[in-house]
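Internal tracking record. Fields below are filled automatically when a chain is submitted to the structure queue. Please do not edit lines marked as system-generated. If the sequence contains nonstandard residues, flag them in the REMARKS field before resubmitting.
Queue: standard
Priority: normal
Entity type: single polypeptide chain
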Amino acid sequence: MSLDSVREFFAERAPDIEIIELAESTATVALAARAHHVSPGQIAKTLSLKVKDRVILIVTRGDARLDNVKLKKMLGTKARMLSTDEVVNWTGHPVGGVCPFGLETPLQVYCDVSLKSFDEVLPAAGSIRSAVRISPEQMATLTAAKWVDVCQLPEAGQD
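SYSTEM-GENERATED OUTPUT FOLLOWS
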């Protein structure tokens, strides 16, 4: 269902974007970067968070980490990561395949400004073996995402 919902999403909104399906798992940033021959930063990871009584998605570059101070300031309160079951229930996607496309439930999507370091990023596409190549701007437009600054980048020289 998950990969199919992403296929439907792109068929309706951006039929020129092709879903890439691989034989090997791309469920983690490291696996995805290796499989797609890109840096970990170019993998767009989607984080599912509970904020009071609502769920939001934050898409960030693969090598960035949420900055809890920035996140709390932006949201006005603390947030917590969803459990695996909650992720599937809210997004319709399995952990490792979560993306802001073809969601089970309409959710507010935020894109971290760190994504703008790349002309093209690779978010998952609803399964642990699928992805799309897309510009950060087009991803934000297609998902009605708001741009935010809620992450820390790795120190220079770290991987």
